[in-house]
Specification:
The complex is a heterodimer of chains A (240) and B (205).
Chain A (H helix, E strand, L loop, with lengths): L34 E2 L4 H4 L30 E10 L9 E6 L24 E5 L5 E7 L4 E3 L5 E3 L2 E6 L8 E7 L17 H5 L2 E4 L10 E4 L2 E3 L15
Chain B lengths: L19 H5 L1 H4 L21 E9 L10 E6 L24 E5 L6 E7 L4 E2 L5 E2 L2 E7 L7 E6 L4 H6 L1 H4 L13 E4 L2 E3 L2 E2 L9 E2 L1
The chains are: A mainly beta (240), B mainly beta (205).
Chain lengths: 240, 205
């Protein structure tokens, strides 16, 4: 296949850099327009990962930090597919997650929330998608927690998700939320997203069919990365 | 009614938040889970090629250091080859070089520092060469969608003059925000300003 560009990012679905409701974005948002760039080999390539990079337990957060016991909280399977905008699977791509524990506490030297740390829960995991773009994690449903935006702001339960795709231009970090959480519409970070359907796309669905009876519930979360142009017709990227 | 187009819609970005290290650099968060943390060294020991050291700091609109920034670097090897199968010269890429790494700032000072291989020039569109550069992607609390930029090397002035990306910056004075400052032999400083008079050029890739 000849090299081809990725579709232009639809910024109407993406949060703007500056969103006054999320206060920290004020000093950390560029004020100038982004420089428009037609993609080159620098943008259509990106890092690749293989099974030698990860270990068997890396996608099981109920076990990968266990210190003689199991973590407290609601056991869940989190699974889905990484797809592109052409509805094609993105195989063999690295998916990384991190999250608070069931008390809403992060295992991070900078988190001082009074929710208790869990001696058996670290809060990070990673995996590679299979040939159909599928991934799965076993983890604990995180708790909501307070943060200083407004005086009484609470984050809905969420898991941070990082995905690579096949090119640096597909790189994405997002957060997944859980079906039915009443904090979602009240969250200033969720509300940085201007498109209501794009917010819905971040809410993982309860998937009873994937639950393991007497063991854990399941949620389904698909991730869509930028799609890529067909190379059927003219493509000047190589300079033809 | 017009027909529907078949495309899915890209998942929306959300901030990486202040605890991004838990997922992407857990050692820095203060614990150990993975046998190997990914991206810690751009040029691991034993990888051949000229090495450079780059230090810098990311500043917010008030001039304060961003102490929780995470930067990912993606770059070509010293011959200008990306370690990716779609680079036409992939097979000749430097052995053991992934071209990618993660850089985090010091939690107290906000300063970052990393060592890597000096990249070579890479082909651009329509055969125009691009000056040697690092591709950077910044995420942190307060950044709603990752910010892309590039770092160029100060001694490549001739190549800068014909670099299509630098040339496309309409406000000419701002092109300098993408060029590092030499601080010694093979040592550079590259400060990034998210906002303000010295705002770095960020790129919609």
């Amino acid at each position: 296949m000849k090299p081809a560009e990725f579709y232009m990012r639809d910024r109407s679905l993406q949060p703007p850099a500056l969103h006054p409701g999320y206060k920290t974005s004020l000093p950390r948002s560029p004020r100038h327009a982004l420089l428009t760039l037609q993609q080159t080999v620098s943008e259509i390539t990106g890092p690749t990962f293989g099974h030698g990079d990860i270990d068997a337990l890396d996608n099981d957060l109920t076990l990968n930090f266990a210190h003689g016991g199991l973590p407290v909280g609601e056991r869940i399977l989190l699974s889905g597919r990484v797809l592109d905008e052409n509805n094609r699977p993105v195989p063999n791509t690295l998916v990384e997650i991190w999250q608070a524990n069931a008390s809403g506490r992060y295992r991070h030297k900078k988190d001082a929330y009074l929710g208790a740390l869990d001696p058996n829960f670290g809060g990070c995991g990673r995996t590679l998608t299979d040939a159909e773009g599928r991934y799965v994690f076993r983890t604990i449903k995180p708790g909501p927690y307070p943060w200083l935006n407004y005086v009484n702001s609470w984050r809905p339960a969420h898991i941070h998700v990082s995905v690579f795709g096949t090119s640096f231009s597909q790189r994405l970090i997002t957060q997944l939320y859980f079906e039915g959480d009443p904090l979602i519409p009240k969250c200033p970070i969720v509300q940085t997203i201007p498109d209501p359907d794009a917010i819905q796309q971040l809410i993982a669905a309860l998937d009873l069919n994937s639950a393991v009876p007497m063991d854990c519930l399941a949620y389904k979360f698909d991730i869509v990365l930028r799609g890529r142009r067909s190379t059927l017709f003219e493509n000047r990227l190589e300079g033809n | 009614m017009v027909q529907d187009l078949p495309y899915l819609r890209e998942t929306a970005s959300q901030t990486a938040g202040p605890y991004v290290h838990i997922g992407l650099a857990p050692g820095a968060a203060g614990f150990h889970t993975f046998e190997t943390e990914l991206g810690q060294a751009l040029a691991p020991a034993g990888v051949a090629g000229p090495r450079v050291t780059i230090e810098g700091c990311v500043y917010d609109g008030l001039g304060a250091p961003v102490k929780d920034i995470l930067i990912e670097v993606w770059q070509a090897d010293p011959q200008g080859i990306y370690p990716h199968p779609e680079d036409p010269r992939f097979a000749q890429c430097t052995a053991g070089f992934r071209g990618w790494g993660r850089v985090i700032s010091d939690f107290d000072s906000g300063q970052f520092c990393f060592e890597t291989l000096r990249p070579g020039a890479v082909a651009g569109r329509a055969g125009r060469m691009q000056a040697p550069h690092l591709n950077l992607w910044l995420v942190s609390r307060g950044i709603n969608i990752g910010l892309n930029t590039r770092m160029y090397f100060p001694e490549d002035q001739d190549a800068h003059a014909t670099d299509p990306v630098l040339a496309s910056i309409e406000q000419r004075a701002r092109a300098a925000t993408l060029i590092a400052v030499a601080t010694g032999p093979d040592s550079y400083r590259f400060d990034i300003h998210l906002q303000g008079a010295a705002e770095t050029v960020f790129i919609d890739i």
